[in-house]
Amino acid sequence: MFISEHKKDRINRISDFFTEPEGTDRKLSDKETEEMDVYYDNGEYDKYLSLGCKKFQDTGSVDDAFYIAKALKELYQFSSAIKWYEKVVEMEGESWDTYCNMVYLYEQIEQHEKAIRTAKCLLEYPQSRPANVKEELYGIIADNEHYLGNDEEAVKWFDKILDTTTNEELAEHTRRIKKSWS
């Protein structure tokens, strides 16, 4: 209902940009660069995107791709954001921040296997992280296993939370959910 009522407001700037005829000047002017930064900083992501894409076409920068992905995520364009985050991984390899965003987006667009794989990859990431990050990743894996109908596997991940957490509120919440899934 909401989508059909707001169809005219949907973001078409990216597709419009990529269908511009060859030879179109894609380099940002100083004014456009300034506007682009202001749009992003002010959370005007719909206005940012066309300029961000234009800049990416000019620079091919991994940072530009990352900011486009973040802007799309903020605009709830999850499927498009995933494609840009995948491009970032393709360009720079593994990245903690990129993978964290991808786990969330995969879960939102119900690509549960990919969410699980990406969360497990983050658990193996070489940089040390606080325990609560691991607990959150365990919970994400458990949720996605549940969505796939694998409640036994989900319960195993809840056990990992219970083995590591010092947060009694989280432990109680985990026990409640675990009981309902067992």
Can you walk me through this structure?
- The protein is 74% helix and 0% strand.
- The longest helix is centred in the last third of the chain and has 17 residues, at 131-147.
- The radius of gyration is 20 Å and the shape is elongated.
- By secondary structure, the chain is mainly α.
- Helix 6 packs antiparallel against helix 7, helix 7 runs antiparallel to helix 8 (112-123) and helix 8 packs antiparallel against helix 9.
Secondary structure blueprint with pairings:
Elements (H helix, E strand, L loop, with lengths): L1 H4 L7 H6 L11 H12 L3 H15 L2 H13 L3 H15 L3 H13 L3 H12 L7 H17 L3 H14 L3 H14 L1
- For the termini, the CA-CA separation is 36 Å
Number of DSSP-assigned strands: 0
Classification by helices and strands:
mainly alpha
What is the count of helical runs? Answer: 11
Q: Main beta sheet, described? A: none
Helix content: over 70%
Low-confidence stretches: 6-13, 15-22
Give the overall pLDDT as a whole number: 86
Task: Offer a quick outline of the entry.
The protein has 182 residues and is an all-alpha fold.
For this entry, give a set of tags.
single chain, 182 residues, mainly alpha
